[in-house]
Specification:
By secondary structure, this protein is of the alpha/beta class. It folds into two domains: 188 residues, L-asparaginase, N-terminal domain (Rossmann fold), CATH 3.40.50; 96 residues, Rossmann fold, CATH 3.40.50.40. Helices cover 30% and strands 23% of the residues. It is built from eight helices and 15 strands. The strands form four sheets. It has an eight-stranded mixed beta sheet, sandwiched between helices. Helix 6 runs parallel beside helix 7. The longest helix is centred in the N-terminal third of the chain and has 15 residues. It is globular and about 60 Å long. It binds aspartic acid (ASP).
Amino acid sequence: MKPQTIVILGTGGTIAGRAARPSEALAYVAAQVGIDQLVADIPSITDNGPVETEQVSQIDSKDMGFAIWAELANRVNHHLARAEVQGIVITHGTDTLEETAYFVHAVCNPDKPVVLTCAMRPATALFPDGPQNVLDAVAVARHSGARGVVAVCAGVVHSALDVQKTHTYQLDAFSSGDAGPTAYVEAGSLRLLRNWPSAQEERAIAAMKTIAKLGAGPGWPRVEIVMSHAGASGALVDALLVQGGVQGLVVAATGNGTIHHALEAALLKARDAGVRVVRSTRCLQGRVLATPGDIFPDSGGLGPVKARVALMLSLMVL
Ligand code: ASP
């Protein structure tokens, strides 16, 4: 059988970063090297079949936003629909990779693999980690039976639902929490540990239609994240209500979704004013388990930043 194409979409990040000296691993500028160049620097990438590249954006992912998400979802869907494309790799900054992964998972619902990858060292480092991560991501995208949105970093494959950046500078910066990784990439082969992630098609189609209309423009539902903590107050929530325009609030609650009473009082006011409130947790592991008498719904296992994306999408397709 003719080997199929892997499309590599570049969005920026440290993987495309440049530093003044090869020894410099922290003081660098992200998003400098084009995806064509990054891929050209990995000759063995075409050993098992052709790859194509496309630059979707060139940003530090701390600045990720709706316009790029809309364009990225559009390009992912475009390439997924091509019969000769086996899978897609997205190079991305590590800072918001988990949010983009969840967004693409929710709105594209791929039955082919879409694999986000990244680097913790810039492309100019003495020993950059990006090239191996890209090779691993291509190996995942070429794996027969692979499907859904996953992220690959340091040889570990994480589901879009579970992946979370948990370290500020180590090369293995991501975790799937207590769900555990989906697979390991071992010398170019995959050791599968769990099922591939699957999405909800109807919601994806509805959300994508709205996103196509909204594009880069205003109109994406405004959802903010507030955190419950010792000494919390309702001041931020009150200020948001006074300012107006907020449609949803995600609470990064303590423990199993508990909220400081002062913040809870403000959230109840917000809910009475028509704002959707969802409880997630600050805890890195576990999920909020529902208990009788819960005042606000929980996030269904999503951490605060993904719960925010989910609430935005749900507000879009109401
Ligand atoms: N600030 C960078 C980014 O997210 C960090 C990285 O890629 O590691 O684009």
